[in-house]
Amino acid sequence: MSMINYASREINLEYVYEKVAPNTRGKLISLATETERTLFFDFLPVDLGAIRGFKTRFHLYTVPGQVYYNASRKLILKGVDGVVFVGDSQVERLDANIESMHNLYENLSEYGLDLREIPFVIQYNKRDLPNISSLDELQRELNPNGVPHFEAVATRGIGVFDTLKAVSKLVIKSLS
Questions:
Q1: Burial class (CB in 10 A: 0-12, 13-18, 19+), 115
Q2: What's the pTM value of the predicted model, to 2 decimals?
Q3: pLDDT tens readout for residues 154-175
Q4: Contact 98, 64 (CB under 8 A)
Q5: pLDDT tens profile 19-30
Q6: CA-CA distance, 1 to 57, in Å (whole number)?
Q7: Which of 24, 72, 102, 174 would you label with 55, given CA atoms 20 to 30 Å apart?
Q8: How many Å apart are CA 69 and CA 90, to the nearest integer?
Q9: pLDDT tens digits, residue range 49-96?
Q10: Three-state SS across the chain?
């Protein structure tokens, strides 16, 4: 399962990693980009125990928000079981969010995938900042299909596990 952070670059897998029991998680791997401290991607396998007798292990990834890294974004999406789009709530990031959402649809379509048919949730991050778009505007612009959505402040962990739990349930349901 990929947790895609196109616009804000902050799903904050480091927070998830710190909160998940050490005996159920793998190693967190981070690679920095050349131009910023932005993570190229994170990989975090999380063992969720047995479901219907099968051992379940989720692999979580993030990718950078910059369009410059589109090839990396696309590669990470190959074989994806579920997606979280993390949008930056700041007013000045709305156009970038829209562009990133279109890019996500395009990249998935190259693998024959459609966001309307796979587990997909949206997280609206940075809800604690002063200059943010309203939830109604974000929903109108980024969520026309009405997929589950969550407000978040990833740096403080608010909404992070709610988002992870929702997409995990959708993935498990889709595999049943």
A1: middle
A2: 0.80
A3: 888 899 889 988 998 898 888 7
A4: no
A5: 777 777 777 766
A6: 10
A7: 72
A8: 22
A9: 676 777 777 778 777 666 667 887 888 888 889 999 999 999 999 999
A10: CEEECCCCCCCCHHHHHHHCCHHHECCCEEEECCCCCCEEEEEEEEEEEEECCEEEEEEEECCCCCHHHHHHHHHHHCCCCCEEEEEECEHHHHHHHHHHHHHHHHHHHCCCCCCCCCCEEEEEECCCCCCECCHHHHHHHHCCCCCCEEECEHHHCECHHHHHHHHHHHHHHHHC
Retrieve residue 167's tokens: 């997409």
Residues 6+ apart with CB under 8 A from 16: 44, 46, 60, 160, 161, 164
Structure tokens at 75: 């590669």
- Tokens read off for 122: 């949206």
102 Cβ contact partners less than 8 Å away, ≥ 6 residues apart = none
